[in-house]
Amino acid sequence: MDLRNAKVLVTGATGGIGQVLAVGLAARGSDVVLTGRRADMLKPLAERLGGRAIPADLADREAIEELLDQAGEIDVLVANAALPATGLLADYSIGEIDRALDVNLRAPIVMAKLAGERMAARRRGHLVFISSLSGKAASGQASLYNATKFGMRGFALALREDMRPHNVGVSTVFPGVIRDAGMFADSGATLPRGVGTRSPRDVARATVRAIEKNLAEVDVAPLSLRLVTLVAGVAPNVSAAVQRRVGGDKTTEQLAKGQRHKR
Ligand SMILES: NC(=O)c1ccc[n+]([C@@H]2O[C@H](COP(=O)([O-])OP(=O)(O)OC[C@H]3O[C@@H](n4cnc5c(N)ncnc54)[C@H](OP(=O)(O)O)[C@@H]3O)[C@@H](O)[C@H]2O)c1
């Protein structure tokens, strides 16, 4: 997919990573359509990038179809919006569980269906899902977040096969811990010693690369964290013990506290 003059819909464009993603895609020559709930942030950003702003709440089921109708024919969907969904399941109301599942998993699936059908008819398009290394490795106090991000991985890998004959690409991006802006940085949580981070720009660069090269999956994390994630995939019990030993449970506790207001 050539991003020059491509129409790209970015969800979560008001967020720490979404804003940088929007800037990166516009710099690549894309015509960006930006969405999020905070219209006061969305509109100036879209104006600055010569794009369009369409405020929408992705937990509102009807709003998703309206959003795609308003966006018109899009060449690329970047499903980036998410809620942190951290904390103990016991501390969640059923409504909060539904919202996390709706925003993090249902909305990307429904948007991929609606946008993907139009892309398949035109034999041109790309669907990108911003997951997380939490879509490959679980940690305490993140059962809902892990559920949505693991789910997204399976969905995207299967969809990639189904979309292949229609010339529509599907990619998933897996950021590790992102510094400076976004849901981790906003939480004020601290990391165990030795755990490295990446920047929102690194996520934007990886997303552009995934679209342009039609990559199935891209990790955005230091090698050490990618290796730990690889181990978690084959030996989750070992990974859980290592996380406890290096004090990962302190970080997950801090994250749950710092992200509680975003349920
Ligand atoms: N930051 C990290 O360390 C990190 C690491 C791995 C993966 N990720 C992933 O990267 C992506 C972006 O995260 P971020 O760090 O930029 O988080 P963020 O700063 O909290 O931004 C989240 C975005 O999601 C949008 N959103 C939340 N609820 C919504 C709703 N009901 N309807 C529409 N939009 C909604 C927010 O927009 P409004 O508030 O305006 O609605 C905001 O733009 C997420 O998928 C996240 O899981 C982040």
Morphology call: globular
In the CATH hierarchy, what is the architecture at level 2?
3-Layer(aba) Sandwich
Q: Predict the CATH topology.
A: Rossmann fold
Average pLDDT, all residues = 97
What is the number of helical segments per DSSP (H or I, 4+ residues)? 10
- In total, the number of domains comes to 1
Strand content: 5-15%
Please provide the ordered H/E string of secondary-structure elements.
EHEHEHEHEHEHHEHHH
Assigned CATH superfamily: NAD(P)-binding Rossmann-like Domain
Helix-strand makeup class: alpha/beta
The CATH class name reads Alpha Beta
Radius of gyration: 18 Å
The hetero compounds bound to this protein are: NADP nicotinamide-adenine-dinucleotide phosphate
C-alpha termini separation: 35 Å
Which residues sit in consecutive blocks of at least 5 with pLDDT less than 50?
Answer: none
Percent in helix: 40-55%
Strand order of the largest sheet: 3-2-1-4-5-6-7
GO molecular function: oxidoreductase activity
Protein name: Short-subunit dehydrogenase
Keywords: Oxidoreductase
InterPro entries: NAD(P)-bd_dom_sf (IPR036291), Sc_DH/Rdtase_CS (IPR020904), SDR_fam (IPR002347)
